[in-house]
Structures are given as structure tokens and as C-alpha cells.
């Protein structure tokens, strides 16, 4: 006896002590801070101990809730931890849910049973329920396909402790003892196997849907006792569970006109984009966790939705906290769901729109590039002559093209889809003269990078701009304005930089000219060029042979310059151009243009129609 008592005082365990050794493991780790720096004696309770002390000892050793305090107190000669609340001992074990004291949420435990799929899902569950005197309420019981393991969840700590103590103590027919593994989980897995899905569908269709009013009531599903009895814990904040519900509704309840999803902790509407309820008129999402108006865009397919409930959602409180007006919130919601006529209890005014009774508006056809007919001859000659001079060494002859008070600016920009990254095609010192307003924020530097006066502009083009060779076949022109004796137009195209070593870079450019009519001729008063690296498609087109000419007003400027003779009368120029492109002689070309009011596009269209119908006589194609 003296030996046994000595061992007890030192925290040891005698071989005759019936208490399991696993209940004494903590005595080695909790000695610091004790009143007498001695471990708690590990002895069986005797008749002299009070009921409260026994309850604390049992609750501390046999439950999964191990919350301890570091400030013990003595009671009846025993060390009692005040952080451990005494637990009532019920004969039936109790059936209430366990709640997290910090955030008042339901606590869950995951129960895993290996080889339950091989033994039989129903046999395992019936054996468990028959073994326990306390009623077991499992949730989301399914067989994991990969591990063949049976998995279910419980939300009662008593159930979790009961299952944990039953590990390897339950015999099952022809399969030995059951291994039961219990661990804490944040919530049940949002999975419904075929059995649970069938029960859930029957419950929704038969218990929650009113065929008289076509109303589907799915609010507050998590507190539904009938679903709990079926072993289903709804989680509409999990996309996998929402996907199952939407699939059931689409297949079985597509006639629904009113749908209530309130109080379901919904924070995301992404899966609701697949909700196909063409007759849905009213939807309640009240008392959920929606925080953004953007979520409502997933409901845009509900064309007949006219009434939406959103009260008691963070989206409302956040708007109030930001001092936003209700009208601003309603406007943002109507941008996502313009079909709404009522939000909560507020009637929405009719939207102001234009041509709402017209389903489609036919816009006039537009061409990719626009050059007025009276400008074609001038621009063809100007661009051809200008770039011929620009591509010569020294560029000295460009002096006659610019006005004395002209301005010049350069912008170098990166591009997506370039054949190589911008940094690989180095621009050299030219990059330092780039006036890219997205890169340069200093106003003084922006002014400095503008070139003023003919001398400064020509010096920059002769000294700093590299030698080039432009591809005339890539040119496209847009005329922006021709008012007040001024012409503003842009030239888009490609050029190759010469004298740059074996890899001569190909650049894509857009150049905007502003020209002024002066007594000495047409002069450039503003010149802006933007440069980017050419893309793969542009380089391929540059290397490809030019396409055959066609009757169109959007021709490349090189073909225009070759086809327009140097005559003054614009009608003669038009006749000769039409004759060259259509293949008809001058006489018939003039007749065709005159009959179509000298409208080149109209005459070309008429020519193509007559040619298709074989109405043009052979004499029209005979040339002297």
C-alpha cells in the first residue's frame, strides 16, 4: 500500500489501478503554475467526494471538449479547474446541438468508417443505431467513391463522444469490428448522394411547393426539423449544394412563379445563373449575406422577374453606411436587372428610354476608311510625294513641305501581339523623344518634347529619326476634317527601319497631318506620329503580294496615285478611274456614271449587278 500511495503522489499509476492510463497523460505537462507544484493524484472517486467534483473529473477525461484554465482552485482536497464547466449527467445523454461559445454557431464532427461501402451502407448505420441507447442523428451520410469509406456528420458533442468511445467495440456480421474515426469539422460536406437527393427532391416538391399559387417556399431550410430527420443539412452558401437545388427546381418545378430563398445565409449568386424559371415573377433573397450589387447580374436571364426582396442584407446596410441614397442603390440594381418593377416595398418609376418599341435599329453601312472623292486626287499625290522624300537620306527636300510655324510630336507606345516584345526592338535614343502622355506626367517635359518651327522639326527628322522604307501597299487614310482651308487626315501603315543591322525592325505607325492652304501651296502646320512594333499579322501582310484591285472607295493610296492622271477636271478623272477598274471603255463608263448622278459607289454597284445578270453589251469592253 505504501508503494502504491507513493506512486500516486508522484503522478504515477499502480498496475492494480483500474483507471485507464490515457487519463493521466496530461499530468506531465501541466505541473508548472500549480499551487503546490505537484500533479493531480489519479485515483478513483470515493464515496467522500461530492457529485460536482466527480462530474468535473468525468467531463474532463471522457469528452472531446478540452477547454482548460491555468488558474486552478482547490475544492474538497482536489484541484478543480474553474475553466471547465460541470456537465450534467443525463441517463439518455441529451440530444441538443452543441454551440460554439465564441460565435454562437453549430459545432460539427465528421465520422468516418473505413470499408463501410464493402460492408453495406445501410447495414453499418443500422448496426450503429442498434448499439447505442441514445438516438443517433447522422447528417449527409454517403460512401466516398475513392476510399470506399462511409462518412456522416453529427452536431452533438454527446454523439461525437459516444461514437469515439465505440471505436473497435461494435461487432458487425462477417466483418469483424467497426473502426470509427471522429474529428471536428466546420460544417457537413455539401454533397447529396442518390438516396439523399431523392429524399430532398420529394420533400421540396411535396412539402414546400404550392401547386395552387405556384409558390416555392425554401426559406430558413437549415432549421427545418423534417430535413434533419432525413439526415440533410441544407447549406445554400455552398455552391455544390445550390447546384443540386437548382437542378431539382429546373427539372421538377419549372412552373414556379414565386420563389422564397430568405434566411439561408446566401452570399453568392453565381450558381443561380443556371436557374431557368421563365415564369418567375417574384423572388425573395431577404435576410441573407449579399454584399455586392454585382451578384444580381447572375439573375439577368429571369426575364419576367418584376419583384425582388433584398431587405436585411449587407448590401442595404453598406449603402446606408456610405451615406448613399436609396435612389443610387435602386439605379445600380436596375442596371443589372432592368426588368424589375418593385424592390422590397418600393414601386419603381418607369424607366426613361429611347426607341423602346423598336427591337433593332439598322445603322447605315460604314467603310473602314473614308476619303472624300474631291480629296482623293490631292491626297494620292501628296502622300506619294511626301513619303518618297521622307525615305531619302538626309530628308533635305522635306523643307518645302512644312510651314514656318509648324509643330511636331512623337509618341512611342507598346502593343499587344507584337512579333517580339517592345524591349527587344530597341528604339535607341528615339525613345527619349517620345511624348507618350500615359508615361510622362511632368507638364514642363510635355512642353519641351513638342518641336516648334520648321528648322527644329526638320533637324529632328534629319538627325534623330532613323532612315526608313515605307510600304505603300499598307497605307490607309482617314480624312477627319476639311473646313476653313485646312485638311486634317491620318495615314496608317508600316515601314522598315534601315541601317539597323541584320534584324531591321518593322514598325506600325499612325501619322496625323494638319495641312493649310497658303498662297505658296499646301503646307503642313502640325505633324504627329505614333509608333508601335508591328504584329505578326501585319508583318505577314507586308511580305504578301498585293491583292488584285476591286471597285471600292477604300483603296490603298499607292493604287490611287497610279490610277489618277494629272488632269484638272474631276469628272474626267472619275471616268478614267471607273474605266480602268471596271474594264469598260471611256464612253460606256461615262454613261454609267452619268446615269447614276456621278456617284462612284452607286455606279460601281449598278455595274456589278448588270454584270451578274449579263446585261452589259460586249461593245462596252471594246477599247480603241
TrEMBL record:
Gene3D superfamilies: 3.10.450.50, 3.30.70.330, DNA helicase RuvA subunit, C-terminal domain, Ribonuclease Inhibitor. GO terms for cellular component: cytoplasm; nucleoplasm. Residues 1-48, 64-101 are annotated as: Disordered. SUPFAM superfamilies: L domain-like, NTF2-like, RNA-binding domain, RBD, UBA-like. Its main location: nucleus. It is found in: Nucleus, Nucleoplasm. GO terms for molecular function: RNA binding. Residues 25-35 have a biased composition (Basic residues). One of its GO terms (biological process) is poly(A)+ mRNA export from nucleus. Keywords: Leucine-rich repeat, mRNA transport, Nucleus, Repeat, Transport. Residues 569-624 form the TAP-C domain. Residues 378-531 form the NTF2 domain. Transmembrane segments: none annotated. It comes from the Eukaryota. InterPro entries: Leu-rich_rpt (IPR001611), LRR_dom_sf (IPR032675), NTF2-like_dom_sf (IPR032710), NTF2_dom (IPR002075), Nuclear_transport_factor_2_euk (IPR018222), Nucleotide-bd_a/b_plait_sf (IPR012677), NXF1/2/3/5-like_LRR (IPR057125), NXF_fam (IPR030217). Residues 36-45 have a biased composition (Low complexity). Residues 1-17 have a biased composition (Basic and acidic residues). Belongs to the NXF family. PANTHER family: NUCLEAR RNA EXPORT FACTOR, NUCLEAR RNA EXPORT FACTOR 1. This is Nuclear RNA export factor 1. It comes from Adineta steineri.
Amino acid at each position: 500500500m505504501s508503494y502504491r500511495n507513493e506512486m500516486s503522489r508522484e503522478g504515477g499509476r499502480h498496475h492494480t489501478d483500474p483507471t485507464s492510463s490515457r487519463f493521466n497523460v496530461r499530468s506531465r505537462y501541466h505541473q508548472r503554475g500549480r499551487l503546490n507544484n505537484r500533479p493531480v493524484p489519479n485515483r478513483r472517486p470515493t464515496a467522500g467526494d461530492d457529485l460536482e467534483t466527480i462530474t468535473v473529473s468525468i467531463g474532463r477525461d471522457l469528452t472531446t471538449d478540452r477547454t482548460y484554465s491555468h488558474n486552478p482552485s482547490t475544492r474538497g482536497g482536489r484541484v478543480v479547474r474553474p475553466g471547465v464547466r460541470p456537465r450534467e449527467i443525463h441517463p439518455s445523454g441529451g440530444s441538443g446541438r452543441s454551440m460554439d461559445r465564441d460565435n454562437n454557431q453549430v459545432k460539427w464532427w465528421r465520422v468516418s468508417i473505413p470499408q463501410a461501402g464493402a460492408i453495406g451502407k445501410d447495414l453499418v448505420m443500422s448496426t450503429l443505431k442498434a448499439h447505442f441507447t441514445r438516438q443517433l442523428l447522422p447528417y449527409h451520410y454517403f460512401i466516398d467513391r475513392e476510399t470506399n469509406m462511409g462518412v456522416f456528420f453529427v452536431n452533438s458533442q454527446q454523439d461525437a463522444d459516444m461514437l469515439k468511445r465505440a471505436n473497435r467495440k461494435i461487432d458487425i456480421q462477417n466483418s469483424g469490428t467497426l473502426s470509427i474515426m471522429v474529428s471536428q469539422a466546420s460544417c457537413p460536406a455539401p454533397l447529396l448522394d442518390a438516396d439523399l437527393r431523392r429524399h430532398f427532391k420529394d420533400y421540396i416538391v411535396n412539402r414546400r411547393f404550392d401547386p395552387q399559387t405556384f409558390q416555392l417556399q425554401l426559406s430558413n431550410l437549415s432549421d427545418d426539423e423534417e430535413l434533419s430527420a432525413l439526415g440533410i443539412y441544407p447549406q445554400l452558401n455552398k455552391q455544390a449544394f445550390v447546384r443540386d437545388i437548382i437542378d431539382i427546381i429546373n427539372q421538377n418545378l419549372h412552373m414556379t412563379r414565386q420563389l422564397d430563398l430568405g434566411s439561408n445565409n446566401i452570399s453568392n449568386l453565381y450558381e443561380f445563373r443556371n436557374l431557368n424559371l421563365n415564369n418567375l415573377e417574384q423572388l425573395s433573397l431577404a435576410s441573407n449575406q449579399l454584399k455586392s450589387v454585382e451578384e444580381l447580374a447572375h439573375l439577368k436571364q429571369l426575364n419576367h422577374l418584376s419583384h425582388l426582396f433584398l431587405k436585411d442584407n449587407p448590401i442595404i446596410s453598406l449603402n446606408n453606411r456610405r451615406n448613399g441614397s436609396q435612389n443610387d442603390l435602386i439605379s445600380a440594381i436596375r442596371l443589372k436587372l432592368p426588368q424589375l418593377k418593385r424592390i422590397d416595398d418600393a414601386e419603381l418609376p418607369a424607366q426613361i428610354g429611347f426607341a423602346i418599341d423598336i427591337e433593332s435599329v439598322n445603322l447605315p453601312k460604314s467603310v473602314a476608311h473614308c476619303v472624300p472623292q474631291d480629296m482623293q486626287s490631292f491626297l494620292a499625290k501628296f502622300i506619294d510625294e511626301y513619303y518618297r522624300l521622307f525615305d531619302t537620306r538626309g530628308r533635305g527636300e522635306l523643307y518645302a513641305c512644312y510651314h514656318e510655324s509648324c509643330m511636331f510630336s512623337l509618341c512611342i507606345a507598346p502593343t499587344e501581339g507584337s512579333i517580339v516584345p517592345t524591349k527587344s526592338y530597341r528604339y535607341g535614343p528615339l525613345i527619349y523623344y517620345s511624348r507618350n502622355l500615359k508615361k510622362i506626367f511632368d507638364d514642363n517635359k510635355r512642353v519641351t518634347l513638342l518641336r516648334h518651327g520648321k528648322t527644329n522639326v526638320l533637324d529632328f527628322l534629319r538627325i534623330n529619326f532613323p532612315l526608313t522604307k515605307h510600304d505603300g501597299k499598307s497605307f490607309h487614310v482617314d480624312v477627319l476634317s476639311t473646313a476653313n482651308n485646312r485638311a486634317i487626315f491620318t495615314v496608317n501603315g508600316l515601314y522598315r527601319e534601315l541601317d539597323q543591322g541584320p534584324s531591321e525592325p518593322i514598325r506600325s505607325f499612325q501619322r496625323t497631318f494638319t495641312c493649310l492652304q497658303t498662297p505658296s501651296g499646301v503646307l503642313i502646320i502640325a505633324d504627329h506620329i505614333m509608333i508601335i512594333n508591328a504584329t505578326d499579322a501585319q508583318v505577314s501582310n507586308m511580305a504578301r503580294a498585293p491583292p488584285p484591285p476591286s471597285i471600292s472607295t477604300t483603296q490603298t493610296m499607292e493604287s490611287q496615285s497610279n490610277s489618277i492622271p494629272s488632269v484638272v477636271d474631276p469628272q474626267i478623272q472619275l471616268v478614267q478611274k471607273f474605266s480602268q477598274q471596271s474594264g469598260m471603255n471611256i464612253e460606256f463608263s461615262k454613261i454609267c456614271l452619268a446615269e447614276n448622278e456621278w456617284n462612284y459607289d452607286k455606279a460601281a454597284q449598278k455595274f456589278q449587278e448588270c454584270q451578274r445578270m449579263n446585261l452589259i453589251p460586249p461593245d462596252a469592253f471594246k477599247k480603241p
